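Continuing the batch. This is chain 6 of the set; chains 1 through 5 are on the previous pages. Same settings as before, nothing changed between runs. Recording input and output for traceability.
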Amino acid sequence: MIQRLAQVKGQGLVVLPTRELALQVDEMLRKVGHSLGLRTAVLIGGTAIWPQVQALSKKPHIIIATPGRLIDHLQNKNLKLDNIFIVVLDEADRMLDMGFLPQIQRIIKALPKHRQTMLFSATIPSEIMRIASDYMKLPVRVEIAPTGTTVEKVTQELFIVQRDKKMHLLQKLLETYNGPTLVFTKTKHGARKVAHQIRMMGVSSSEIHSNRSLSQRREALEGFKSGKYRVLVATDIASRGIDVVGIELVLNYDLPSQALDYVHRIGRTARAGAGGHAISFAVPTEQKEVRSIEYLIRKTLPVGKVSGIPDVAFAEFSSRSHVSRPGRASGSGGSWRYHRRGSFGRR
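Output for chain 6:
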């Protein structure tokens, strides 16, 4: 996009699902385009509109926006999309999951007919195919890796644990792994509770979820990056845009609602060629969820044990072998490539 903008007059538009991801994309674009004098405008909710209007008045080369706030600016006639000649729909499947399809359709209809559109998605469900066929001319499909493949150099491990023993197990693991740790919970209330309990253990932690303001989320993420917080607790939606090098452990305190989110979660570790670990907690009634994950990633997760935590098992998993290593939680994972990102593009 930056190369095209350097050669042709016009603007670029990047639409993505969350505020955090928008800010992260803006940060990267500014770094890459600094020598070219690249100007950007970030249009996201949770912040005042007037500074965004001022940024738009400076005729930015690239507009980075979440769907809802972009629609607000269009309705208020703060901008027109007449000069957009290249548009990126990032994390398209996530935007659909969050109910943004009507906004995406409105945005696309407001764009010039002669443009280049790039659509990035971890999965290509029928709704994505429909958008491509309805709004793109002769789209080209590019697959980077098969669905469900997981990042290389990540050891993956499963602990079957009673719900009331989860926190005790978490404490044991935080005593074993000393590096930056990203913990996932299913709900914002769970994230708040887990982060509080971790702080009670004497471990620095913060949380990211939908009940936190944008400034609180940014402080939590920056604190995690800088080492102020050793542990960051997050929900799936709020965690979009977390791109931190050096995360040693991703811990699924709660299993994700969708198996593919497991792949998204554990992809946060082992970045930039480093190794990493992914550990998941499952209660005895979650055998169906575990099987869905294993079917997607095409491997069986080894079951780990930690001293002081009672052994429990799914009846279906009675044939699984338990593995252990002295001084560290047990288990090892397979080496797979990270998840697919499909893209369509055609002028």
